[in-house]
Amino acid sequence: MLTFSKMLATGVRGVDLSQGVPHFLIVCYGNICRSPMAQGIFERLGRSMCAPLAVDSAGVSGWHAGSPPDPRAMIAAARRGVDITNQLSRGLREADFFEADHILAVDRRVFATLRLRAPAGMRARLGMLMELAPDGDIEVPDPYNDGAEVFDAIYDQMERGARAQLEHVLLATVR
Q: In the annotation, is 50 catalytic?
């Protein structure tokens, strides 16, 4: 199987931009824990893979609109060299379904909400962040009521999911 890592090793770099830059929107419940970390992960992986991407995050609720990520999320990301301190929470908008290519939910509850809110004729493909990950755990637990160690664990989990999503999308663009 050709992976993106093997593709880079053989000299194939970047993405076919004739179809535009792939646009990912990662969605969790409040957009202060999981999806801001996932956005940072996608951005870092895109840079390391020499793949231009558009990445954003949102929450299905607007409760935390305008707030920065949870401090524990910022610390978990910073430990891995990812700065998410400039992100601000926002709610999901109808326009997101027409602007993004891939809208990825972090858990089944968020995915169900996305499906209910998805307008007819939308452009985006709805999916689960972890659906292509090798470990088979499709749910990313909400760490909001847990300790910092849970933020570290879900960061690592989401990194596996993001890598699998990017390899899938980027391999499809060079075939």
A: no
Give a yes or no: residue 1 inside a domain: no
Q: Which listed residue (33, 107, 142, 163) is catalytic?
A: 142
Active-site residue, from 33, 34, 70, 163: 34
Q: Could you confirm whether 33 is annotated as catalytic? A: no
Mean pLDDT for the stretch of residues 110-135: 96
For the chain, what is the mean pLDDT?
89
Q: Are 97 and 118 in contact (CB under 8 A)?
A: yes
* C-alpha closest to that of 76 among 47, 112, 33: 33
Higher per-residue confidence, 13 vs 39: 39
28 catalytically annotated: yes
- Number of domains composing the chain: 1
CATH number at residue 54: 3.40.50.2300
Q: Where is pLDDT greater, at 9 or 117? A: 117
pLDDT at 19: 59
Give the range among 9-18, 26-35, 128-137 with minimum mean pLDDT.
9-18
Name the active-site residue from 28, 44, 70, 107: 28
Rounded Cα gap, residues 114 and 102, in angstroms? 12
Contact assessment for residue 174 and residue 16, using Cβ atoms and an 8 Å cutoff = yes
